[in-house]
């Protein structure tokens, strides 16, 4: 597997893995690396897989025994996970089996008994999500999305938008599985959220018309709205970050307006440039003529 197909080069990258198998009575989680699976319950007893990080004691012990070190919370100061698929350069210590290497390919397996009255939903996601959301925050966010939409794709996209707005710059992938005990759509919650989103949309249009200084990127606009109190008035647990899709659409519209204005100005600018070039050419001809006269014979003006 280390050798790439069709050549002599070797694979140097690696990946984490998180998966779940559902049966009528159990949920089986398999985790390798720092992607994470969580199971949210109505009782607030959240189950979570454990990330494989080099600074965790049992992981650090294996790394050190294999001749490696943990620096700046990374394997040999480089790799941020202690178990993974691939990453073969960390699995080459002679005489050690694969599970005793600096980076182990061995997953953790969890067997969770299902409770139809208590289980709400499970989420499988990479660390780009958990970099900005704790388990409890993610569960609250998903619950709030399920109270306003039955569209799980839309709910998942909103979670990713919130993570992006909160500063995550890593890859983000998420799978959501919803069970019977999950929150249902609440019409009052839908109404309140729509009212708030309409107020945000109105303010964004005002920012376009007024050409507000500093409204140039999503982070700056989010800060402007937060300073104006939209964060406090949000009916959702994700606060102003819920408006991320509106802000992105605002920026797209703003850019289109600016591009249109530039296209309208282009003919006028071209005409001005042509006039300027003609003036330069005429000036050059005048200078050239004067120079030729100066260098030639004396001219009799009388």
From TrEMBL:
It comes from the Eukaryota. Residues 272-281 have a biased composition (Polar residues). InterPro entries: PP2C (IPR015655), PP2C_C (IPR012911), PPM-type-like_dom_sf (IPR036457), PPM-type_phosphatase-like_dom (IPR001932). Gene3D superfamilies: PPM-type phosphatase domain (3.60.40.10). Residues 262-271 have a biased composition (Low complexity). It holds the Pfam family PP2C_C. PROSITE patterns: PPM_2 (PS51746). Residues 257-302 are annotated as: Disordered. This is PPM-type phosphatase domain-containing protein. It comes from Meloidogyne incognita.
């Amino acid at each position: 597997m280390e050798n790439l197909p069709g050549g002599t080069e070797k694979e140097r990258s690696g990946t984490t893995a998180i998966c779940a198998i559902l049966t009528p009575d159990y949920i089986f989680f398999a985790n390798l690396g720092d992607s994470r699976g969580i199971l949210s319950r109505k009782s607030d007893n959240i189950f979570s897989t454990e990330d494989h990080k080099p600074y965790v004691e049992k992981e650090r012990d294996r790394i050190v025994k294999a001749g490696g070190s943990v620096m700046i919370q990374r394997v040999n100061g480089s790799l941020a996970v202690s178990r993974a698929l691939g990453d073969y350069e960390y699995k080459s210590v002679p005489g050690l089996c694969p599970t005793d290497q600096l980076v182990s390919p061995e997953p953790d397996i969890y067997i969770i008994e299902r409770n139809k009255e208590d289980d709400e939903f499970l989420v499988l996601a990479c660390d780009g999500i958990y970099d900005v959301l704790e388990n409890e925050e993610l569960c609250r966010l998903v619950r709030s999305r399920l109270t306003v939409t039955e569209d799980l794709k839309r709910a998942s996209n909103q979670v990713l938008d919130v993570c992006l707005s909160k500063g995550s710059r890593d890859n983000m992938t998420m799978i959501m599985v919803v069970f019977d005990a999950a929150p249902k759509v609440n019409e009052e919650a839908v109404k309140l959220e729509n009212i708030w989103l309409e107020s945000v949309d109105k303010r964004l249009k005002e920012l376009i018309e007024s050409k507000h200084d500093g409204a140039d990127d999503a982070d700056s606009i989010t800060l402007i709205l937060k300073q104006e109190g939209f964060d406090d008035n949000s009916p959702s647990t994700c606060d102003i970050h819920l408006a991320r899709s509106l802000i992105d659409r605002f920026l797209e519209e703003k850019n289109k307006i600016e591009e249109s204005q530039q296209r309208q100005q282009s003919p006028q600018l071209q005409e001005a440039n042509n006039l300027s070039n003609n003036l330069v050419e005429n000036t050059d001809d005048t200078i050239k003529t004067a120079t030729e006269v100066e260098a030639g014979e004396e001219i009799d003006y009388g």
